[in-house]
Structure formats: structure tokens, C-alpha cells
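Encode chain A's predicted structure.
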Amino acid sequence: MRPKDEDDVMTIFGANETADREPDHRRLGWIRLAIGLIQGAALLGLYLAIEHRSWPATVPGLFAPLVLIFAWLPVVLLGAVGRMRLRTLVIWGLTAAALLALMGWWSVIWGVRPNGLNEPLASPVVFAASAVMLFIAHHLILPADRARRWLAPYPAYFDTAWKAGVQLALSVAFTGAFWLLLFLGAGLFSVIGLDFLRELLGQEWFSIPVTTLAFSAAVHLTDVKDGLIRGVRTVALMLLSWLMPVMALITAAFILVLPFAGVGRLWDEGYGTSLMLSAAAALIILINAAYQDGEPGSAPNVVLRWAARIAGILLVPLIGLALWGIALRIGQHGLTPERIIAAACVLVGAVHAVGYAFAAVKPGPWMRPLERTNVIGGVVAVAAILALFTPLADPARLSVADQMRRLETGRVSAEAFDYAFLRFDAGRSGLQALDRLVASDNPEIARRAGEAKAAENRYMVDQPEPERTIDVVPGSDSVPDGFLTAAPGDLRATCRNEGDCLAAASDLDGDGQIEWLVANAHRLAVYQQADDGWREIGGYNVNLCAPRGHDARDLLREGLTFAPSPLPDLSVGDTRVPLTPNTDCPA
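Encoded structure for chain A:
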């Protein structure tokens, strides 16, 4: 039996309520406002510290953790107070604070930071990742605590997570509307010559605490009106669920057309993997909007049920394509922090793809294995984020190790190695690797590493000549040696990966000298040999009249037909100026 004093403490924090006993909303309201006030005061103090370069802003390893803690931990507490047992709340709060502190400390001490970012602050990607990690982890812990079990019933996970998502969105909207009204009021007073409110809104001692107080009040108001939140959630889920068949149809059509359009074209623009992952994430959200809590009473109609099964199966090729894309880039250019983070996203997506596909084909209750998949996927996502933004699997450290291995094994030459990556994009791990290269026995490596180390920005470092590759149409010889050497802005500079460009040889003017035609996804250029190498003499904007779904490479592959020009060139001194006709494409 619990002592009475402990019951009193738990009652103060609203953690002793049961399903049969309504929480004291007035008491919870004051607690939430106190949390918002403490958050605002703490963030104001941190802002003033960085503004005046005083303690603790002078200690980045302390300041960044404090910013993360006071930015996100109060939001967790606002959602936990009154819903979580006091003991669980204390343990989870301390654990969350420790994880945020570790992520913030690692970001400024070892991690990758964008150029120009104030030194004490963690990278923006750390802010976003820590918020996602806390949201997922909190809504794995809260239902389990309320159910007094390690694994709660799935409807509890669904209810708390989706309710919190709607509540968070409404609270942010309320805070934004609150500020719009303040600015409107300031404008009204300014019209009559009174600027006190506008000046007040520009004072950090006012704006920061009032923002956190407004957000805390919004969280409490939406918590009190539980029926309102559930109503908004019901409408949102209904609308999202009917978008799911549309997305499933689009994805299915894309998968069916892809083999005929050419899989290699997925990577032409450089963001094919991101598109695959985004499409997969959209399907996962929409499938869950249709599935809801899995209870028989909330099962959708037959159209949505079949659409969800199809969408679950379609996740497999989407994630497979994303995996293929990231594997191609890593095989060609090695690891970078961005590719490692993308690989982690592919891992989380693969967990969902396998689980959802299994749920789609398994006989029995509709999509029931989806429930366990969501819980496992949440755990994997939290573990992946913690690994990536702590020493466990720091992307910068792993990328540096891989790039150094490529240099040492000769897969990339000393001239082509990206020293600027070590200097500016790989954190302390990159700087330590650069120090090792400065002391290298290879004089070329040591020289280039020394120049990179002394550079104040990446543009002062000699950029490596990118590796280029080009395909040729059947029947043409390989392109001449040195043909792919090109300055930035030249079409040949875009030929970095297999399939980016296509070339064909032809004597266009009948003078016995070969011209080379090179096409990428956007245009067709013509090159002639000159004393200083191959230079572009002109081009054709064939995409203006290309058939739908075709580009310049397709036209070059299918064969070009040239027609004589009906009008002569203009002679201006010793220079011939050709006519540039208007392009009139047939409808």
C-alpha cells in the first residue's frame, strides 16, 4: 500500500487519476502554465547568454544540451502531466533530459555543423531528430504506463499518438493565431501614434515567455476539450483515409511504368531515393489513417480495405528502389553523413514494408500484423536516431573512415579526393583525419591536405575533378581521351553517373571531321575538336518538341534526322551569325 504522502504528491501532479475519477483540470492548468513559464524563463536566459556571449554560451558543450533540454523537455512534460504515473514521469523525464544532453553535446563537440551557425548551438538536424525521437518514445511509454504493462493494447498506442498529433498541431496554430492578434493590435495602436505594443513585442523578455505560456495554455485547453480533439481527429482520419486509394493508384502506375521508362532515369536528378522514401512515408501514414485502432467497429469499407492491402504490398518495391539508389551512390562515391542518414531511413522503411506486406497477404483479421509492425518500427526509429546522433553510429565518423579507406586503397586518387569534406563537413573526426593526411608520406596528399586545413571556407580549397562517365549509342566508338574534361556550366560536367548522358559521333557538316553530340535530360550539345580540346559549338533545345515522356537522350538513342537550313547565315566582318529560328512545335 502506498503511503498517504506519496498519494498526495501524485495527486498534485494529476498522476493519480483513474478512468473512474476525472482529473482536476484547474490544478493541471496551473501546473502546465508553471511549466510554460519556467521554459520561457530558461530560454530567455539562454538567449541573453548567447546575445552577450556570457556563461553558459561560452561553453558549447554545456550550452547546446541546455537549449535542447529546455526546448523539448517541457513539451514532453506538458503531455505527460496528469496522464503518467509520477514515478514513470520522473524516470522518463530524467532519461529524456539525459538523451537530449548527449545529443546536444555530441553535436557541438564532434558532430557536423552548417557553416555560419552560431558556435554554441546544435545543428538544426539535431533539433528535428531529437523532437521526432521524443515524440515516438513518449507515445511508446505513455500507453504502456497507463496499461501497467510493458506492451499496451494497440488501440492505446493509436489513441495517444494520434490525439497528441492533433493536439500539437492545434496548439501550434493557437500560438500562431495569438501572435497574429498581438501584431494586429500593435498595428491598430500604431495608426493612432502609440507604438508601445509594437516595441513591447520586439522585446525578448516579453516575446519568449509569452510564447511558451500561450503554447502551454493551448495544450491545456485542448486537453480539457477532449471531445473536440477526438472530433477533429476523426474528421482528419476520414479525409486522409480516402487519399490512400489515390496514392496507391499513383504508386502502382509508377511501378508498372518504370521498367518501360528506364529504371536508371530515377537517379538522373539526384533525389530519386528521397522521392521513394517520401512516397513510402505517405503510404504508411495513409494506411494507418484507414486502419485506425484496428477495432471491428472502426473498420473501413471494402474499397479502403483492399486499397490498404495493395498499398502495403507497394511499400516493398518503393523501399527496394530507395535501397538500390542509396547503394549505387555509396558504391560510386562512398559514405557521407547524408547517405548514412538516408540508409537509416531506408532501414526504418524496410521494417514497415516487410510488416505491412505480410499484413496485406496474411489471412485472418484485416491487416492485424500492422499493429506489431508499428510498435517495432517505432522502437527501431528511436534506436536509429539515438545511434546516429550519439557516438554509437556518428555519420561523420563513419563517413570519414570510409573516405580515408577509399584514399588509402587507391579507389580515389590524391587529386580527386575531397579534402574540403574533411575540413568543413565532417566535424572533429574530419579535422583529425586531415591532420593525419598533412603528415602523409605522399607529398601530393600532404600538400593538398595542408591547403585545406589552412582554408577559411570550402571555396578556398581546390575542388577535386569529379569522376565523369558517358554512354555511347550502339555503333559509335568510345569518346576520345580527355573528352569529358569540362568546366562548370558545360553540359559534360553533368555526366557524373551512369545514364546521365548519352553521346554519338557524326560528321554533321560533311568536312570529314567527326563531331560529337552529347545529350542529357535537358538538351543536346554539339562538340568539335579544337587546338585546346573539344569545345561546344552549339546545341539543340530538342526537349521543346520532344514527345511526352521523352528527352534529348531518347531522341539521340532513336536516331536523329537533320534537315538543311533554308536561310543563310549573316556575315558580320569575319564572323558568321546564324539565324535562330522560332521553334514552332506541332500540337
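The radius of gyration is 30 Å.
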